[in-house]
Amino acid sequence: MKSSLVFKSLILLAFSLSTSIIVAQEYPVAASSVAVTPSAKPARLTLSGHKAPVRAVAISPNGQSIASGGDDKTVKLWDALTGKLLFDLNGHVQNIKSVAFTPDGTTLVSSDTETIKLWNTKTGQLIKTITAHKNGVFAAILTPDGQTLISTGADNTIKLWNIKTGKLQRSLKAEARVLAVSSDGKTLFSGGENGGKIRIWNLATGKQLRTLTPPRPKDAFSPQQQASGAISLAISPNGQTLISGGYDDSFQSGPLQQTDGKNLKAWNLKTGKLIYNVSIGGAGVDTLAISPDGKVFVAGGLGYEVVLCDIKTSKAIITQKGHAGGIYGLAFSRDGKTLVSGSGDKSVKVWQLVPSLSLVA
């Protein structure tokens, strides 16, 4: 009888573990703990030092360093375990737009509205500066192999650069304010045009493959009204789903609106069809990131919460509170166990992601 009870207990425990979801909290939940409301726990670390809103964050491939950039025109490199500031990377003269580590973690790429800079992460020294676009840089990203830098700017071009030499490899003509690249490095996605169009490119040839166009507003004020342009993009690791974020009706008003009233869209990249068109969080979705396993995505914007959602349904799993300003930068660690957020409150927060164990008494 005693062995039978033990066996039943083990079955219940295994079932509970198999149905767990990811939650954000300060410390891992002990095996004997009851599930904790995620928003009740603070971030594991809060990194303070920026003097203006933080617009971009990144985690190094080995998970040991965090980079952040803000409107104070500085890039900071932090120890991800202790929160200690490792380097202040000074040299930009405009607000920071993006930060990204190369796959080997030895180089950090940062962009402001004028230039793109490459830094040595071990010494904090500037390696090179690229003046990429006339009239301003909007975004800069790296291909997964770290060999190519892709930028877009106010001159309505997307440019591909050899990161070692800093030489221009290819220029594509397109209006774009945000970029994303597939995990296999073969496909580029650009967004930001009026009408909400997202263009899909073959990186090897530079040819445009497809255009995704969201629906126009159902209750348009005028024939000119369109969906708003994307301001954030994220691609699932398997390359099957694209998520785009923008503004909804609460952000713009009047007959000249350019929005369909929704701030988040998901697309099936095999069919080109819209999976869902919804609104989450505040008025706009300024930043997006998809977990390495592709099961969830996280979104942030003018609302003060970090919202973790099921990628298949867009339903919120967790609304994580803690920031006192809008969320403008988000990044997952490569193992999916850590999430970093940058905010208008001038801080960077480090969240630990662990399974929630709801054990049967």
Automatic annotation (TrEMBL):
Keyword Repeat listed? The answer is yes
WD repeat windows: 47-88, 89-129, 130-171, 320-353
What InterPro entries would the database entry show? WD40/YVTN_repeat-like_dom_sf, WD40_PAC1, WD40_repeat_CS, WD40_repeat_dom_sf, WD40_rpt
Print the keywords alphabetically.
Repeat, Signal, WD repeat
Residue stretches in coiled coil: none
SMART domains registered for this protein in UniProt: WD40 (SM00320)
What residue stretch is flagged as signal peptide? 1-24
Q: What is this protein called?
A: Uncharacterized protein
Q: Which organism is it from?
A: Dulcicalothrix desertica PCC 7102
